[in-house]
């Protein structure tokens, strides 16, 4: 075990022989380990994912975490508990902000390996509350898209009951304040993809929970009727038309006839 940790530390310090250690570490995950050793590997791989300076370090951390979580599920369930999830969402990790997309991507990864855990429902409930809180803060398109990506994979984390209506309304408000400052075509495509993830989740919820449709549409009309909203989101008129086509015609085809004409101009 000490040798495994040593190899991980070498990869952290950019040792040129790093590549050859990855396979050995993943193979070692199949061996019997005590609880303390498992915790050490979960903590170290988490450090790689969250604090890695390079994409290589982050990728190694993810591969190692998955290998050990798959082979030591009971220990990972103890490590990846509700208290830990809440700490990440409320305090962040090291220098990583609690509102970093890396935090959400890590949580989405971890949820995959606690599905059989008896406390998974508790984790889902905690995420319902925290993700609603996050969306109410009106995050940018990248972070909001990460939230929606997580919820699309784990719909159990979507707020329920009356909070679901609030959540949908907040999604609409988020879209209304998204901004794409760049005129670069690739950046615009990336931005529209993020918006698609958000509006896609909104559509998914409305298809299954019809009680959320009317309050959300009211909010949608308020947003698109606000003077200068689309101009602030996408200053180029041609780009605004593309934006409208994506969001309104594609995502809300049933209601497209209700939208004021010439809104993009």
Topology:
Elements (H helix, E strand, L loop, with lengths): L1 H11 L5 H11 L6 H17 L3 H17 L1 H7 L2 H10 L9 H11 L8 H17 L4 H13 L8 H16 L7 H24 L4 H13 L3 H5 L3 H14 L15
Poorly predicted spans:
229-265
Helix percent reads over 70%
- What is the element string, with H for helices and E for strands? HHHHHHHHHHHHHH
The number of E-state strands comes to 0
Q: Please, how many helices?
A: 14
Quaternary state, please? single chain
Q: Approximately what portion of the residues adopt beta-strand conformation?
A: under 5%
Radius of gyration: 21 Å
Distance between the termini: 64 Å
State the gist of this model:
This protein has 14 helices and no strands. It has helices at 2-12, 18-28, 35-51, 55-71, 73-79, 82-91, 101-111, 120-136, 141-153, 162-177, 185-208, 213-225, 229-233, 237-250.
Structural features, described:
This protein is an all-alpha fold and 265 residues long. The protein is built from 14 helices and no strands. The protein has helices at residues 2-12, 18-28, 35-51, 55-71, 73-79, 82-91, 101-111, 120-136, 141-153, 162-177, 185-208, 213-225, 229-233, 237-250. Helix 1 (2-12) runs antiparallel to helix 2, helix 2 (18-28) packs parallel to helix 4 (55-71) and helix 11 runs parallel beside helix 14. The longest helix has 24 residues, at 185-208. It starts with a helix and ends in a 15-residue tail after the last helix. Mean pLDDT is 81; it is low at 229-265.
